[in-house]
Design brief:
heterodimer; A: about 500 residues; mainly alpha; two-stranded antiparallel ribbon; B: mainly alpha; 2 domains; flat; Tripartite tricarboxylate transporter permease (chain A); transmembrane (chain A); membrane (chain A); DUF112_TM (chain A); transmembrane helix (chain A)
């Protein structure tokens, strides 16, 4: 009951005109970047992060969260209409979505995708309302050893996102950690890794690194690949029949459940959950032979799983401070920029903020459903913007975003350097996601380790003699094995679907 | 693959730097495991070990394709333009700097003629200025023209 009261308080904040506008902007920008080539939610959030310091934490994070879940909606459009899944997680949607589009049922497929996304997104936020405070409440009992175990668990994600080479993934993770150590040390206040360069004494800002690795290098990549604008053609009759919605409601619900519960596990990305939801739907179907040839349930289930995963990812983020995906890692940086520390104390110390953000997700999901279906024609037109225009716009926004972090040209310089590094890393297949995750989690990892060592006077037994800490370590091992199995399975499914090896880095 | 070996060597160099920092900070420690030196030490060892593995373990072999000369010039040009933006922003201010740099970017990325590039650039500058300076009140250098 108390949770519901807090949620209602959250609605009173989320429904203020400014916050409604921010949720709307976030949802619309998210949908757009989900559809457009060359700019994903991670780089968009990074570019716009400095803006949140001007807007205020609640308004800013509401907008950024809107971009995150809005992009999940946007990704389905090109997957269904053009057979171009922008992310690996959209591949299952295209398996049946594109055949449906070829049969002239692209409009209803988009409608079902939007409704499925709404249903599962809302399910996910309901889960977030009840699970996150419970988890945060339990996590209040955590001491430094438990936090260290938790960081260890979170970092096992790196192994999964290492791409084709584990060695390369681990090196990138360690390199990210090394970058995060630049600046003043956490224990003794000693300056590290500055080598006499004054601006480095304040440390390297993660936003500059993300803008360089994800936005600038992406523009160069797009330019090199001669990215063309995409024309999705005229779309008519986007509203599915009520009978179709009813027939697909089970698929939406099952997809939502798969996405939600598996999305809670670190390393279990939307790429994994969407394929699992698709395969589950095929298994329970009376007509599995229809899958791959234009079965509406093959669109409803993965789209639902995708959005439920994005919502459930907020649970470990809010309650434990653990990002389960790259985009959430950047969002975590956004919390920190605004002086907020995600974790068990977030609900106690910044209750009004966190409940307002959660309430805004309900508002944003409704907005996406109400606005996106009628606006599909407009989105289709926007995808025709040539890359020759998109590229300069992204670069100028990246520059402004990097500069605005500290009003410093040094941050811009760092972004440009990482743009160059990102270009070569991409060419030689060195994964950048482990770098980012280790950069974000590094300081928490170090702090909890040093505090634990200080508590135990240098004995490592502290990690294995405390029940919660030991349980988390065991859980980390189980999840590590489980996630490797699931990732292998997903890679093999992706290969079956697209005909070649694709690195899953989300 | 040669590139992986080069990556491994770079990892060893960074590992060495990290170990150097660990040794430098070691005297400031509170205990062996408590201090600013411990993680640089751990990361340093990790980077060196993994770097050695990258050098000696045979990795996945694949062909890296670089763009043709013209595209390569464009890519280098973009990075040059972005660095130039840093200078222009400081001396000419946000509005004029953005306008000039946008023209260059539209020319390089979109291959638009000068007239079109100026028009697109003017629109982009007005939009960016309206959002970031007027609406969000973000401070940018005004340059010698105080714009």
């Amino acid at each position: 009951m108390e949770t519901l009261n807090l949620l209602l308080d959250g609605f009173s904040v989320a429904l203020s005109p400014m916050n409604i506008m921010m949720a709307l902007w976030g949802a619309l920008i998210g949908t757009l970047v989900g559809m457009l080539p060359g700019l994903g939610p991670t780089s968009t959030i990074a570019i716009l992060l400095p803006v949140t310091t001007v807007l205020g934490p609640t308004e800013g994070i509401i907008m950024l969260a809107g971009i995150y879940y809005g992009s999940m909606y946007g990704g389905s459009t090109t997957a269904i209409l053009l057979n171009i899944p922008g992310e690996v997680s959209a591949v299952p949607t295209s398996l049946d979505g594109y055949p449906l589009a070829k049969q002239g049922r692209g409009g209803p497929a988009l409608g079902i995708a939007a409704i499925g996304s709404f249903v599962a997104g809302t399910m996910g936020v309901i889960g977030l309302v009840f699970f996150a405070p419970l988890l945060a409440d339990q996590a209040l009992k955590f001491g430094s050893p438990e936090y260290f175990a938790l960081m260890f668990l979170a970092l096992t994600v790196i192994v999964n996102l290492a791409g084709a080479s584990l060695i390369k993934g681990l090196i990138m993770g360690l390199f990210g950690y090394l970058l995060s150590m630049t600046g003043v040390g956490l224990t003794g206040g000693q300056v590290r890794f500055s080598f006499g360069i004054e601006p480095l004494q304040a440390g390297i800002d993660i936003i500059s690194v993300v803008i360089g690795l994800f936005a600038i290098s992406e523009v160069i990549k797009g330019m090199e690949e001669n990215t063309k604008s995409i024309a999705v053609g005229k779309i008519t009759n986007i509203y599915p029949k009520f009978k179709e919605i009813r027939e697909n409601s089970g698929a939406m619900f099952r997809g939502g459940l798969v996405g939600f519960f598996l999305g809670l596990l670190p390393g279990c990305s939307a790429a994994v959950t969407t394929f699992l939801a698709y395969d589950l739907e095929k298994k329970v179907s009376k007509h599995p032979e229809r899958f791959g040839h234009g079965e509406m349930k093959g669109v409803a289930a993965p789209e639902a799983a995708n959005n439920a995963t994005s919502s459930s990812g907020f649970i470990p983020l809010f309650a434990l401070g653990i990002p389960s995906s790259t985009t959430l890692a950047v969002l975590l940086a956004g919390f920190m920029i605004n002086g907020l520390t995600p974790g068990p104390t977030l609900f106690e110390e910044n209750g009004e903020f966190v409940w307002a953000v959660i309430a805004s997700m309900f508002v944003g999901n409704v907005m996406l459903l109400v606005l996106n279906l009628p606006l599909i024609g407009l989105w289709a037109k926007l995808t025709k913007i040539p890359y020759g225009i998109m590229g300069p716009v992204i670069l100028i926004l990246s520059f402004v975003g990097a500069y605005s972090i500290n009003n410093s040209l040094f941050d811009v310089f760092i972004a440009i350097i990482f743009g160059v590094i990102g270009y070569f890393l991409n060419k030689y297949r060195w994964p950048v996601v482990p770098l980012l995750l280790a950069f974000v989690l590094g300081p928490m990892f170090e702090k909890s380790f040093i505090q634990s060592m200080a508590m135990s006077k240098g004995s490592f037994a502290i990690f294995f003699t405390r029940p919660i800490s030991l349980t988390i370590f065991l859980l980390a091992i189980v999840l590590f094995v489980l996630s490797i199995v699931m990732m292998r399975r997903t890679k093999s499914r992706v290969k079956d679907a697209v005909g070649s090896d694709v690195e899953i880095t989300e | 693959m040669v590139a992986d070996r080069v990556g491994g060597l770079i990892s060893i160099i960074f590992g060495g730097l990290s170990l150097y920092e660990a040794f430098r900070l070691y005297p400031t420690r509170l205990s062996f495991y408590v201090g600013d030196h411990i993680m640089p030490g751990v990361i340093g060892i990790g980077l060196i070990v993994l770097g050695l593995l990258a050098v000696f373990v045979k990795g996945q072999s694949f062909k890296v394709e670089f763009p043709d000369r013209q595209m390569l010039r464009k890519i280098i040009g973009i990075f040059g333009v972005l660095l130039g933006y840093c200078v222009l922003l400081y001396f000419l201010g946000f509005a004029i700097g953005t306008f000039i740099i946008s023209i260059a970017l539209f020319r390089i990325i979109g291959s638009y003629n000068f007239r079109k590039s100026v028009i697109f650039s003017a629109i982009q500058t007005v939009c960016v200025y309206a959002v970031f300076v007027y609406w969000l009140d973000m401070p940018f250098p005004a340059g010698i023209f105080n714009l």
